[in-house]
UniProtKB/TrEMBL annotation:
SUPFAM superfamilies: HD-domain/PDEase-like. The keyword Membrane applies. Residues 300-498 form the HD-GYP domain. Residues 322-447 form the HD domain. It comes from Geobacillus subterraneus. The chain crosses the membrane at residues 12-30, 42-63, 106-126, 132-154, 189-210, 222-245. PANTHER family: CYCLIC DI-GMP PHOSPHODIESTERASE TM_0186-RELATED (PTHR45228), CYCLIC DI-GMP PHOSPHODIESTERASE VC_1348-RELATED (PTHR45228:SF5). InterPro entries: Cyclic_di-GMP/3'3'-cGAMP_PDE (IPR052020), HD/PDEase_dom (IPR003607), HD_domain (IPR006674), HD_GYP_dom (IPR037522). This is Uncharacterized protein. The keyword Membrane applies. Keywords: Membrane, Transmembrane, Transmembrane helix.
């Protein structure tokens, strides 16, 4: 692929040179200059010598520019950093091509050419005026600019297969690489240059023709008027360029804005499609796509909610004495989250985590789970496994992404602030936030719920136990948030809670 990339670059370079230098440059020189056959041979020799200098200078810079790409493809086992460096360099390569054309290519050709031409004029080998060197330099800048523009677009085309291959190597890192040049900038420079270039080239050719027919310089009175026309043409080109760029940039900007919103699951269709060209079709297609993605996202959420409901019902069916426990714990946990000012998306994850916090009890033997008396140490060891079993059950779901945020709360809801909890013995803020929240909600509902072997506590007793356990068993902030919510939402229990 690397060799194919180099061959394509070489073909495009020759094509661009033929169009800019061979086509425009040669036509410009042959139709404006009048030299003898002998002088023509000297000019060709000067051009050939300068081309050798240009090729050497450009080859050195090209080798430096292509080095990160070559290192990646030369490596037997390239690491991601090499792939990322190569990707960034390929993305910048069209701009580097312009820099090579306007750098070593332009100066490698024009400086030796100007110097050799000056020597030939000095020793009367060429009968041209010295000012023709200035004309040649001005023409070289124009031709090199045209060549650079052509090279930019041809190199961009050559880079796309390589970018596709490298992006597969680096995955999501490709999205983090900034754009090398915006569409707006490309449009502005291309349209402006393509409008101004013929006028500038014609003006230079006219100056050379005038100087040949009027060596005494009487034609200079013509140029103030010509400069006015030239400035008018360039100004008009700038104005039209701006109109065209705005006409294209506006719908593109609308699309980009709505795409960024879609990344945050804000599936907002484009309300006003006011365009009458291909952008109208593009925006309509975007709206259809957004509608389909939104529908699929809603369906996935419904499926996830249904799955969670089924699992919760299965647990309730397994242990009828705890029926409704998961739902109450989820209600309490979300209330704590709201008091902590958690964002809506986190509240939704917290609620789902709390609904499934005891799902691991499905894996506990009936003799242990349904026992009405006090558990033995061996039986309690079984009960202590349920957070890990619950996490393991959910890890079997594919794809894992929708349920992965639920796992920390499920695994850690029996951890204690003092590190004496289970299954991992985490301490303080090492315990995940959702685990600390669910621990308070779970404990309160367990204390206040009736069981066959005991009656549930009064609210004030449970509140007192929560307060006593602040900083040791439960997170102090979570306890205070929960009790404050109880006071605000259940006025009748405010005195008991206090």
């Amino acid at each position: 692929m690397y060799r194919s990339f180099l061959r394509q670059l070489w073909r495009y370079y020759v094509m661009g040179s033929a169009m800019a230098v061979g086509g425009v440059g040669t036509t410009f020189m042959l139709t404006t200059l009048r030299v003898s056959a002998q002088e023509g041979k000297w000019l060709i020799a000067i051009l050939f010598t300068s081309a050798m200098v240009m090729a050497a200078a450009e080859a050195i810079v090209f080798a430096r520019d292509v080095a990160p790409i070559r290192r990646f493809f030369a490596s037997q086992s390239p690491d991601p950093s090499l792939a990322l460096a190569a990707f960034k360099q390929v993305q910048r390569f069209p701009l580097l091509a312009v820099r090579r054309i306007l750098g070593p290519h332009l100066f490698g050709l024009s400086i030796p050419g100007a110097g050799l031409t000056a020597l030939c004029i000095h020793y009367h080998i060429l009968s041209l005026p010295y000012r023709y060197i200035l004309y040649a330099l001005a023409g070289a800048v124009l031709i090199a600019s045209l060549h650079g523009l052509i090279e930019f677009f041809l190199t961009t085309k050559a880079c796309r297969p390589l970018l596709a291959s490298l992006s597969a190597q680096i995955g999501s890192m490709a999205e983090q690489v900034p754009l090398s040049i915006s569409l707006k900038t490309k449009l502005q420079l291309t349209v402006l240059f393509s409008s101004a270039f013929p006028v500038l080239l014609f003006s230079l050719a006219t100056e050379i023709k005038w100087s040949m027919t009027d060596p005494n310089g009487a034609h200079w009175s013509y140029w103030p008027w010509a400069a006015t026309i030239l400035l008018f043409c360039i100004g008009f080109s700038i104005f039209l360029t701006r109109l065209l760029v705005e006409e294209i940039h506006e719908p593109v900007n609308v699309l980009l804005t709505h795409m960024k919103r879609a990344e945050t699951e804000a599936y907002e269709p484009i309300a006003h499609n006011v365009y009458t060209d291909e952008f109208a079709e593009l925006l309509r297609g975007f709206n259809h796509m957004i509608g389909a993605v939104h529908s699929r996202d809603q369906l996935n959420k419904q499926l996830l909610d249904s799955f969670i409901t089924v699992l919760t019902a299965a647990l309730d069916a397994r242990d009828p004495y705890t029926a409704g426990h998961s739902l109450r714990v989820a209600h309490y946990a979300r209330a704590i989250g709201e008091k902590l000012a958690l964002p809506p998306e986190q509240l939704e994850v917290l609620y789902r985590s709390a609904l499934l916090h005891d799902i691991g009890k499905i894996g506990i033997p009936d003799a242990v789970l349904l026992k009405e008396g006090k558990l033995s140490e061996e039986e309690f060891a079984w009960i202590k496994k349920h957070p890990v079993i619950g996490e393991s059950i959910l890890r079997e779901i594919q794809p894992l992404e929708p349920v992965e945020p639920l796992l920390p709360g499920i695994r850690s809801h029996h951890e204690r602030i003092d590190g004496k909890g289970y299954p991992d013995g985490l301490r303080g803020e090492d315990i995940p936030l959702f685990g600390r929240i669910i621990a308070v909600a779970d404990a309160f509902d367990a204390m206040t719920s009736d069981r066959p072997y005991r009656k549930g506590m009064e609210i004030h007793q449970a509140a007192a136990i929560l307060r006593q356990g602040k900083g040791t068993q439960w997170d102090e902030e979570m306890v205070e948030a929960f009790l404050q919510w109880m006071e605000e939402t259940m006025p009748s229990t405010a005195t008991a809670v206090s």
